[in-house]
Amino acid sequence: MEVYVDPDICISCGTCINICPEVYDWDEDGKAHCLYEEVPVDLEDCAQEALESCPVDAIKEAE
Questions:
Q1: 3-61, which class in CATH?
Q2: In terms of CB atoms within 10 Å, which of 1, 9, 19, 63 comes out highest?
């Protein structure tokens, strides 16, 4: 699973970081970002829950 956070959409609410801090963190601009190019299998459920919980749909799954 590959995910990314679109910094142009992210509103810095922290929902993804609160749900899955093992995968998401703050970047130097105060926006969320993904810590992995490829999310480890054992963290995919957590990453997916954060993706689905983003209030502005800033987290996307790479195609």
A1: alpha beta
A2: 19
Torsion angle, alpha carbons of 27, 33, 38, 39, to 10: 110
- DSSP-derived letter for residue 28 is T
Q: Which residue has the tokens 């609410």?
A: 13
* Structure tokens that stand for 46 in this block: 């957590």
Q: What's the token pair of residue 7?
A: 């910094």
Q: Give the position of tokens 């990314």.
A: 4
Contacts within 8 Å (CB) and 24+ apart, 39-45: 39/1, 39/2, 39/3, 44/1
The residues spanned by each domain of the chain are 3-61
Q: Average pLDDT of each block of 10 consecutive residues along the chain (63 residues)?
A: 96 98 97 96 98 98 87
